[in-house]
Amino acid sequence: MTGLPAGADEVRREILQLSLNDTTRGNRLHIGLFGRRNAGKSSLINALTGQSVATVSEVPGTTTDPVYKAMELHGIGPVVFIDTAGFDDEGTLGKLRVEKTERAARETDIALLLFSGLDMAEELAWLEVFRRQKTPVILLISRTDELPDGGRDLQAAVEQAAGEKPLLVSAGDRPGLDRVRQELIRALPEDFEQPSITGELCQAGDLVLLVMPQDIQAPKGRLILPQVQTLRELLDKGCQALCCTTDRLADTLARLKEPPQLIITDSQAFKAVYPLKPARTKLTSFSVLFAAFKGDIAYFLTGAEVLLHLTASAHILIAEACTHKPLQEDIGRVKLPRLLRKQLGADLSVDIVSGKDFPADLTGYDLVIHCGACMFNRKYVLSRVQQCQEQQVPMTNYGLAIAALLGILDKVSLPNG
Ligand SMILES: Nc1nc2c(ncn2[C@@H]2O[C@H](COP(=O)(O)OP(=O)(O)OP(=O)(O)O)[C@@H](O)[C@H]2O)c(=O)[nH]1
Ligand SMILES: [Mg+2]
């Protein structure tokens, strides 16, 4: 694939998905499988997907890094199955694998938890974790074809300990697999239907102007995911969507018989767009819309206000979901730190993490500033928000932070009114 920086694996995968007219991973229901080594997790994924997705072997610890398999599941729609390393893995490497399994748990919308024996302390501890993070869990007893009574004794013991009757399943048991699929449909979180991106900001018949600078950061020959998703939603809503680059904004507005209902801009163009905005037109940014779509906008707004009271002695963490090689004038790695230092002082301490790296201990930070997170699913972003809340660290996102730094936070319209 040309025009992309080397190492942009996630971006490349995303493009591949889009070019296949597929649903991006961030918008799929994430179904994770968890259990001990050799519990039969990988075999179950293969059986449920009907494909040889994950490596199976009798050697405990076969699965090391999480394996993601996107597919359409009848009755649910686009999902991604996550196979994980056994949570009882040991040693230095084992510990690293368990950390990845824990991370997979944070992006899991529905968990399949496999019980494989009478010693179930670890399974029960994981059940507790899922219940605490309000993740629906389906309890399973796996490899039941090998158990003398088809697993009924173990089923009774698990029911007694967990307060819920587990399903009996084995990789070759079609009716058992169908029961798992039915349970997945039943466990579908009520709020899983993705909230709207533009919310109440525009309705059918409204003209919406999108300001999309195609500068050095814009990937060659394509649009970035938030722009694509927003455009699609506007078309579905029956809005008229008009796009221009920042330098064409004044001319575009001058050609219109009446002002647009809404302007959605790239946050980096806020400064140029705001003075040109017609009085009656609402203004927002892709990143602000994604603050609500993927995160917790109320918490992010408080974080943006906290930002205005920080000084040069503050310690800020910037979290960028994309793992691309830093581009010239990259927003998270270059522009935002520069803007922050200009506003708060040159000595400001800024750490930057990318991809799924996110420190467990955030207490040293005065603020976390997250990207729009179009690459992540909502559950995972909310788990980061929860982590910040538990450690009493304020959090905001790029769009709200930039609006706050430019002094136009109160001029920006939010999708929930
Ligand atoms: N008889 C029978 N064997 C199974 C079943 N599921 C898995 N196995 C066998 O159990 C062994 C472990 O299966 P895996 O699917 O690799 O187990 P896993 O939980 O993914 O293991 P790790 O990746 O090591 O954590 C393999 O030899 C499988 O063939 C089942 O339902 N019935
Ligand atoms: Mg495995």
Largest sheet: 6 strands, mixed
Q: Give the uncertain stretches in residue-range form.
A: 1-21
Shape: elongated
Helix-strand string: HEHEEHEHEHEHEHEHEHEHHEHEEHEH
Rg of Cα set: 24 Å
Q: Based on the structure given, which CATH architecture of the largest domain is correct?
A: 3-Layer(aba) Sandwich
Q: Strands of the biggest beta sheet: in what spatial order? A: 2-3-1-4-5-6
CATH superfamily of the largest domain: P-loop containing nucleotide triphosphate hydrolases
> Could you give the count of β-strands?
14
- Per CATH, the class of the largest domain reads Alpha Beta
Bound ligands: guanosine-5'-triphosphate, magnesium ion
N-to-C span: 41 Å
Fraction of helical residues: 25-40%
Q: What is the helix tally?
A: 14
Class by helix and strand content?
Answer: alpha/beta
The chain-level mean pLDDT equals 89
